């Protein structure tokens, strides 16, 4: 008797169908095997550990939807700190849309942020009062000024709590997530790690 074997697959599943003498012995739709689910956050962390060889790092997970300080303790990852209202990446993205900032240059380049921070003046005050003849013009602020100020302020607010360092007995810090690729954030975290006598794991050196 003839037996027909059919295999159907896609990026995330595979199924096998068997037909013998016109009779369906195995329906491909009922034999789908899906891979086990992977937590998005843990995927970021484990990939970072794999690439860098970090042993037991305190993780700063900074992405579009998450800003958390995470460490591994008692056979599971635990959150030791996180933003209350909005993630860092989400804040930057929203602000960029509000001021109609284009996506050119690409996210990998940071030319727009490499501008010296200047004094910012409120333009409404200029309109509300008459300028004296000898009074100098108030400086105008640009989109680059606002982006730089927002980025510096947000990154300066990211601090590593002491609890995970003591609780997990770790002296390594690993930054993961999309915003973790920001060179300015890496510079600021490197300074913080030096002050705390900790080692910032550098992706670029691996």
From TrEMBL:
It comes from the Eukaryota. Gene3D superfamilies: 3.30.420.40. Residues 37-195 form the Gcp-like domain. One of its GO terms (cellular component) is cytoplasm. InterPro entries: ATPase_NBD, Gcp-like_dom. This is Gcp-like domain-containing protein. It comes from Glossina austeni. The lineage of its organism: Eukaryota, Metazoa, Ecdysozoa, Arthropoda, Hexapoda.
């Amino acid at each position: 008797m003839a037996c027909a074997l059919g295999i159907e697959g896609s990026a995330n599943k595979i199924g096998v169908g068997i037909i013998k003498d016109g009779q369906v012995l195995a329906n491909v739709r009922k034999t789908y095997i899906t891979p086990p689910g992977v937590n998005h956050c843990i995927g970021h962390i484990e990939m970072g550990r794999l690439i860098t060889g970090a042993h037991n790092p305190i993780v700063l997970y900074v992405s579009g939807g998450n800003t958390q300080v995470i460490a591994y303790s008692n056979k599971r990852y635990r959150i030791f700190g996180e933003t209350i209202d909005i993630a860092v990446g989400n804040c930057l993205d929203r602000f960029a849309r509000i001021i109609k900032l284009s996506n050119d240059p690409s996210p990998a380049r940071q030319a727009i942020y490499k501008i010296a921070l200047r004094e910012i003046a409120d333009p409404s005050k200029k309109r509300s009062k008459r300028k004296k003849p000898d009074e100098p013009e108030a400086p105008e602020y640009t989109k680059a000024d606002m982006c730089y100020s927002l980025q510096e302020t947000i990154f300066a607010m990211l601090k590593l709590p002491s609890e995970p360092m003591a609780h997990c007995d770790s002296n390594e810090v690993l930054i993961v997530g999309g915003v973790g690729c920001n060179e300015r954030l890496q510079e600021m975290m490197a300074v913080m790690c030096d002050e705390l006598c900790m080692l910032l794991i550098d992706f670029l050196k691996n």
